[in-house]
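Secretion system protein
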Amino acid sequence: MKKENKESSEKNKLSFLAKHAPINLVNKLFFTQQLEVMVRTGFPLARALGIIEIQMEHKRFKQIIEDMKKNVEKGSPLSKAASEYPKVFSETYISMIAAGEASGKLDEALKRLTIQLKKSHEIRTKIKNALTYPAIVLIAMVAIGIAMLIFVLPKITSIYAESGAKLPLPTRIMIGTTDFIITNGIYLTVAIIILLVLLARFLKTNRGKRVFHKILLKLPIVSPIIKKINLANFSRSLSSLLQTDIPIVETFQIISRTSSNIYYKEYLANAAEELKKGVSVKDTLEKDRQLFPPLITQIVNIGEESGTLDTISEEIANFYEEEVSQTMGNLATIIEPVLMLVLGAAVGAVAVAVVMPIYSLVNAI
């Protein structure tokens, strides 16, 4: 009886998480790719989902696929079954599946989704790899700095304090800092944790997102990367949605709702309203050259006039994805000198604060 209750409790927990927690991109890519192959080779949809469920190692995603299979067996379309899990399947994903079902080309829609997920995975991997080295160096610098302030510097500064000599300003600042950290270490730690929690909550609000995203779009090194990532995502989604025969207005509305940057989100929502009035895509995009540079608007204009906006958007996506890859590949080389300068300045400041009193003491003798 206890075993049954435990299993029931675990299943309820998995069901709750399945509805409210996202699934990582690698698992979604595996699911979409396998489903595309099976649908293309003629497997019935319910049977394909059953086979993928058996292969899936992720417990939560396994249950999601099982639920989707049951819904499909009851006659529900795949898009409807997937829409039960909005935290797992994005609106773009569901819309493309729905369009594929409506046109009888579900395999093609799944293939485009597979390509889109692969590109997203490649970009995310590049970003993670590029940020790993600077993050490790920064964490090591902070850890070493705190260790020196707590364990090393107090022993040195105590000698100066006992000498009774007048100490230079840098040394007095260093002594004051170390004394403050040692005396108020617990309160300082609690204050930092509270500030981080408040900051995290603020960034979840609409105002917080606006402030944070505005900063990202203004920072010297970060801004070009953020813009390229957003343009790559926009172009890839535009191409995928248009190729599944989704109307242009609905396409812009979907991309707007799935955009991560609030300024791109709002701009594309307004662009969708302009498109309803008959304004061209090129005219809607070129109103803000900071978000959409002339290069992309002119290429979009060519695609719009020639009726090849879906394919030319894919070319734009490939271009910006390659740009992001190259930028992230060179990011460590760009950041390394900055980190070395910061580290050098910190070491130099400590060295000055430690060495200057020695000269003062020698002169006093």
